[in-house]
Write a structure and sequence with these properties.
- The protein is mainly alpha-helical.
- The chain has 12 helices and 5 strands.
- The strands form 2 sheets. Strands 1-2-3 form a 3-stranded parallel β-sheet. The chain has a two-stranded parallel ribbon with strand order 4-5.
- β4, α7 and β5 form a beta-alpha-beta unit.
- The model has no long low-confidence stretch (mean pLDDT about 95).
- The structure holds adenosine monophosphate.
- Adenosine monophosphate (AMP) binds next to α1.
- Adenosine monophosphate binds next to α1.
Length: about 325
C-alpha cells in the first residue's frame, strides 16, 4: 500500500487534457492505496481570479472527481486551503530552493513568455514549492500527473535531498510521478504542436475540448481538428501531429494501445476516423457529464465531502 496524492487547480474550465492526463486515472488508485486527492484552490490564486468563479470552479472540480469514480469512503478528498499546515511548510521550504532552479521551470518560462515578461506574480514563480509542500505534507510516494507536472515533482526531489542531507535524516520522502501510458500530453486540436491548455486565449479555444461543452460543440471541434495533406491514419507525432493526437485521444478513451488504434483505421479516411474519435469521446464523456451534473447540483453534499476530507487530511498534516 502506497500513499498517493494529486490535485487539480480550479482555474478556468476543465479540458479533455486534464481529464485524460489526470483525474480520469485517480480512482484506479483508491482501492489499493491510501489516496489523497485535493482541489488546489490556493494554486488557483497564481493568476487573477474572481472570487465567485473560484468558489464555483472549486465545486466543479470536486464534482468532476466524484463523477470520475472517486469515492470519499475509499479516499480522502479535500480542499487545499483547508489545511493551513501546508502554508507553514511552504514558508519553510522556500529556504531550500534557489531562484535559479525555479526560473528554469518550463511552465514558469512559458508563462513569462505568454505575458511578455510583464506582471509576473511571485506566486507563479514559487508555485513548485507549494506543490512540494503538498507532496511532503502527506509523505506522498506516488503522484499521478500529466507530463507537464513531472518537472515540478523532480524539483520536489531536489528540495527533499537538500533538506535531508542538511539535517542528515530522511525527513522528507521522495515522491514518484506517474503519468498515464496513453495521453500524458493531449495537444490543442487546432495547433497540435502545443498542449491543450485551459488557460489559452479566446482565439485558441476552438482547439480545446472543455468537459462542459455540449455534444454538438465537442463533435464539431473534433471534426474540424487540424490534420495534414496525406490520407493515412498513422501515429507519427513528428510529421503527423494532428492525426497522432487524435489517435492518442481515441486509444485513451477505448483503453487500448496506440498500435491497436492504428490497426482499426487502416484504409479509413480522415472523415470517418474523426467521427470514430468523436463517438469514443462522447461514449465516455456523455455519461460522465450526467454524473457530474448530479453531484454539482448538490452543494450540501459537496460541502460535507470537503468537511470530512479536511478533518482526515488535517490529522496527517498535523
Ligand atoms: P492543472 O490544470 O495545471 O491544474 O493540471 C491538472 C492536471 O492535468 C495535471 O496533472 C496536468 O499535468 C494535467 N494536464 C493538464 N493539461 C493536460 C494535457 N493537455 N494533457 C495531459 N494532461 C494534462
Amino acid at each position: 500500500m502506497s500513499r498517493v496524492l494529486s490535485g487539480v487547480k480550479p482555474s478556468g474550465k476543465m479540458t479533455l487534457g486534464n481529464y485524460i492526463g489526470s483525474f480520469r486515472n485517480f480512482s484506479s488508485f483508491q482501492d489499493e492505496n491510501e489516496t489523497y486527492i485535493f482541489v488546489a484552490d490556493v494554486h488557483a490564486l497564481t493568476k487573477p481570479i474572481d472570487a465567485n468563479v473560484l468558489r464555483s470552479t472549486t465545486y466543479d472540480i470536486l464534482s468532476f472527481y466524484l463523477a470520475s469514480g472517486l469515492d470519499p469512503e475509499k479516499c480522502v478528498i479535500f480542499k487545499q486551503s483547508d489545511i493551513l499546515e501546508v502554508a507553514m511548510l511552504n514558508a519553510i521550504l522556500v529556504n531550500y530552493i534557489y531562484m535559479g532552479e525555479l526560473s528554469r521551470m518550463i511552465q514558469y518560462k512559458e508563462h513569462v513568455q505568454k505575458n511578455n515578461g510583464k506582471e509576473i506574480g511571485c506566486g507563479i514563480f514559487t508555485y513548485p514549492v507549494l506543490m512540494a509542500a503538498d507532496l511532503f505534507m502527506y509523505d506522498t510516494e506516488i503522484c499521478p500527473v500529466g507530463e507537464d507536472q513531472r518537472q515540478h515533482v523532480e524539483l520536489a526531489h531536489d528540495i527533499a535531498r537538500r533538506f535531508n542531507s542538511r539535517y542528515k535524516e530522511e525527513v522528507l520522502k521522495l515522491p514518484r510521478s506517474v503519468t498515464p501510458k496513453t495521453g500524458k500530453r493531449i495537444m490543442n486540436l487546432q495547433d497540435p504542436s502545443k498542449k491543450m491548455s485551459k488557460s489559452d486565449k479566446d482565439d485558441e479555444q476552438k482547439g480545446i475540448i472543455y468537459l462542459q461543452d455540449d455534444e454538438k460543440v465537442i463533435r464539431k471541434k473534433i471534426m474540424s481538428a487540424v490534420t495534414d495533406s496525406e490520407t493515412e491514419v498513422r501515429y507519427d507525432p513528428v510529421n503527423k501531429k494532428g492525426v497522432s493526437n487524435l489517435l492518442t485521444i481515441y486509444a485513451a478513451m477505448k483503453n487500448i494501445d496506440i498500435e491497436e488504434a492504428e490497426k482499426e483505421f487502416v484504409g479509413s479516411n480522415y472523415g470517418n476516423f474523426k467521427r470514430c474519435v468523436a463517438d469514443a469521446v462522447m461514449e465516455e464523456i456523455g455519461p460522465f457529464k450526467e454524473r457530474f451534473e448530479k453531484f454539482r447540483n448538490d452543494e450540501a453534499y459537496l460541502n460535507k465531502v470537503f468537511e470530512d476530507g479536511a478533518s482526515k487530511a488535517r490529522k496527517v498534516a498535523k
